[in-house]
Each structure stands twice: as C-alpha cells, then as structure tokens.
C-alpha cells in the first residue's frame, strides 16, 4: 500500500516562497508520474505541475516561471518549489502518484498567501 505524506505548507506574504515536499512509502516510486494539484475553496481541483519518470515536466500556465517540480527517486520524494507567490495561489495542495493502474493521493497541505 502506497502512502504519500505532504509537508511544507503554511502562511506566506505575497512575493514570498515555499517549498512543498511529498514523501512516498511503498510502491516502485521511480516508474510513476508524480504530480502536484491544488484546490481552492469553491473551485475544482486543478493540476499545478507533474513530472514523469524520465524527469520531463509539465506546468499549468498560471505557475510557469514561478514554480518548479523535482524528484529524487532514491529518496522517493517529490518537491514543489514555489516562488513569487500570489494570493490566488492560496489552496490546499495535494501530491499525486499516477500510472500503471494506480492513482494515489496525499492528505493535502494548506498554502495561504496573504499580507
């Protein structure tokens, strides 16, 4: 059974930075696509960024140039470095592991961008 545990959320002022981490236990981490999603109050969950097993990345237009996703297969960890944060980035951020018939989610971590 795979478990994903996120950390690193919190309150930050506009223009600030946060780094989210997602540690996986169980499963063959290296073969799966890892993603970060977010859900703001009253809105649907949306893809923020994903990184496939080869290391190729994809970003939502709203975060391009500000966020960076990375992974370390040996540590079974994926990170989301978030810079130049805006109030509209406020949401619960979820880690996702996907591929080969599996689709696992973490419990989420709150990110609040406010002055």
- Based on CA inertia axes, which overall geometry fits? globular
What is the SS-derived class?
Answer: mainly beta
Report the β-strand fraction as a percent range: over 45%
Distance from first to last alpha carbon: 40 Å
Rg from Cα: 13 Å
Order of helices and strands: EEEEEEEEEEE
Low-confidence stretches: none
Q: Sheet with the most strands?
A: 7 strands, mixed
Helix content estimate: under 10%
Tally of helical runs:
0
Number of strands: 11
Q: Report the average pLDDT across residues.
A: 95
List the helices and strands and how they pair.
Blueprint: E1 3-7, E2 10-12, E3 18-25, E4 33-39, E5 46-51, E6 57-59, E7 67-72, E8 77-82, E9 91-99, E10 102-105, E11 109-113
Parallel strand pairs: 2-11
Antiparallel strand pairs: 1-3, 3-8, 4-5, 4-9, 5-6, 7-8, 9-10, 9-11
